[in-house]
User: Fold these one by one.
Assistant:
Number 1:
Amino acid sequence: MSTPVILITGAAGGLGSAIAKRFSQSRWRVTATDVDKAGLHALNALVPLDFSATTDLRSAANCQELIAEVMVATGRLDAVINAAGVWREGPVERFGEEDFDLVMGVNLKAAFYISQAAIPHLRENRGCIVNIASDAGRRAYRGSAAYCASKAALVMLSKTLALELAEHGVRVNTVSPGDIATPMLDYQAERYGKGNPSAYKRALLRDYPQGREARFLRPEEVAELVWYLCQPQAEAITGADLAIDFGLSAGK
Ligand SMILES: NC(=O)c1ccc[n+]([C@@H]2O[C@H](COP(=O)([O-])OP(=O)(O)OC[C@H]3O[C@@H](n4cnc5c(N)ncnc54)[C@H](O)[C@@H]3O)[C@@H](O)[C@H]2O)c1
């Protein structure tokens, strides 16, 4: 079999780049996209990329164009990881349309149209899709309605796709991490921490059942689960939403 090819969206981000490293270590050919051009450049210094493109994925046309470019560059596609994502918070009463469209556009619409464009190519290789959702798609948090709704919708998009593609041997799952130590978490704490980002982070950790032992996930831990889901041993896993959150979403 020729070397498998993965496409990672949000590849310049904390989780996306960890996923790129994990698959590269196992000799997959890695293709990457992000809006962050400098971040993609930095990734390319660490991970040999077969193809990369700076693309805003909030448009269906951009998603289609990107998949077409990946196919020209590599000739095949075996796995797609939709890891691009944004966080915005604020109560529904004061949440602006621009932020709502941004959150839905990156977290949900991009995954929908990237998946749609990738389907014919994934069918050829009985490939797979992993969408990165969140604990916030499994339980509600005050002040995060748009983000929670986008991730819950992503889970249902994935389950529906799993049903539609099962007869073609294409598997689709979501991974729902708790808080991961990435630039997104730093951004949340800086922007919404009312001048005290450390207190914002400590408050997040207080929610975990581990108490004083609670910690944030490392992106590599999540990347390992994504890796497993793309292996033949995971053949029975499709339509699943796998939590990796220390039990955060299990209940209070
Ligand atoms: N960090 C966390 O605590 C956490 C927890 C649960 C789920 N997640 C999810 O994990 C995924 C990865 O997040 P991360 O923590 O690595 O954050 P990150 O901010 O480090 O990475 C997200 C990447 O998405 C890219 N992106 C943003 N808008 C885009 C657009 N319009 N088009 C293309 N790319 C765009 C960003 O440039 C960034 O590189 C996201 O879907 C996020 O929602 C993160």
Number 2:
Amino acid sequence: MTGGAGGIGAAVVRRLAGAGLRVAVADLDEASCERLARELGPGEGFGVALDVTSPRSVSLGVAAAERALGPIDVLVNCAGWDELRPFVESDEPFRARVLEVNLAGPIRVTHAVLGGMIERRFGRVVQIASDAGRVGSSLEAVYSAAKGGLIAFAKTIAREAARSGVTSNAVCPGPTRTPMLEAMARADERGKKIVEGLSRAIPLGRLGTPEDVAAAVGYLASDEADFVTGQTLSVSGGLTMA
Ligand SMILES: NC(=O)c1ccc[n+]([C@@H]2O[C@H](COP(=O)([O-])OP(=O)(O)OC[C@H]3O[C@@H](n4cnc5c(N)ncnc54)[C@H](O)[C@@H]3O)[C@@H](O)[C@H]2O)c1
């Protein structure tokens, strides 16, 4: 579980642990990962520092998680990062960072884990993408491109791994109350207005919660979803439809 220390990530960790899975909590901040892993109980969780932008960190982190808890049957890629910025004002380092964290990173982690799943003929891969990747999102051009790429990646892995007992799906949160969204709303007047506007536009009348997203991930990781692969599930209160 990458990004396990974050708003949505921590809710997914608790959800999967509640369903009886032992969960490796991987994120940049080792102390937060270890705290959350301890909360799950002895032997139920494992905290590991992992930077999805570093090939070495990913291979060391995946190996450590497998040594601690055994082979990875469920992978949830939740690490993500963005800042609201008009595309024309963005620079090369910013664009490279957004693509690394949100697209190359999840691809790298999937590559580190998928081979084992295919060998064991079982696996569940869930990418936390975004509705930005389906319908676009003002001031998030490169992030939207990365998340759109992640959705296409999830579909292709679904095709390649289907005969090996591995499913691959993408969950697309709409605006969800987490530190990432709160940071955007706090950053400046423009960010605040965007977040307020989104909240008003949501048909179900509220922002999403991390638990709303975690419930969708829990379903896709469960036996109930054995026959569901290559799908893109929006959890957005109806902000996006179809
Ligand atoms: N909050 C929303 O409204 C929203 C909407 C759509 C999609 N999402 C997606 O949901 C996911 C979780 O977002 P969140 O809102 O919980 O944000 P968050 O900032 O609370 O959590 C993101 C987590 O990713 C971790 N992370 C960032 N860069 C990393 C790296 N290089 N390696 C490992 N971990 C890294 C952070 O440390 C953090 O714990 C992200 O992929 C985000 O793009 C969020």
